[in-house]
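Intended use. Records like the one below are meant for learning the mapping from a protein sequence to its folded structure. Do not use them to infer anything beyond what is encoded.
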Amino acid sequence: MSYNDFLENPLASDINEIRSSWGWFLALGIVLTLLGAFCIVANVTVTFTTVLMVGWLLLFGAMVSLVHAFRVHTWSGFFLYLVSALLRGFTGYVFIRYPLSGAAGLTLVLASFLIVGGIFRTVASAALHFPRWGWAASSGVVSAVLGGMLLAQMPASSIWFIGFAVGVEMIADGASLMVFSTAIHGLPETYHPRTA
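Structure written out for the chain above:
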């Protein structure tokens, strides 16, 4: 995409606003890439850490919801609120008590997230055509392929693939952000998008 073609893009006016923050985009891209590399190296540890963190967060959320449910016990939606809190707490307990089963459940959720998120990112970046949009589209394709691989290798993949997939996803996002930051930094200092 040429510079003149980009000026026709509706995103061109927004680039002026974020142009001065290109260094933050670059720093975030580098941090995501480094964290992604760590997740790939320690994939089993990251998988079980993720399951335990989600379990504890669900338990904490259930306790807060339970206290809140009893504080509004006269409300007509009290029973549904109570059941929701109990189910959240039970799910958190299962994740903490049986992390292997929790990993299998989270693997299915993660696979769905990767497939849907990857398709959305690919389509959105192709539709918006921001600078070097192909990198973001490639990142979306990587996400969707990882989700498909994850589903194809279930249940064995649930032990290590969460950590691996999170790592690859972070590296792809980090690379996409680094390329985007250099693209907006490389645009001419003074340009004004064309107005219709």
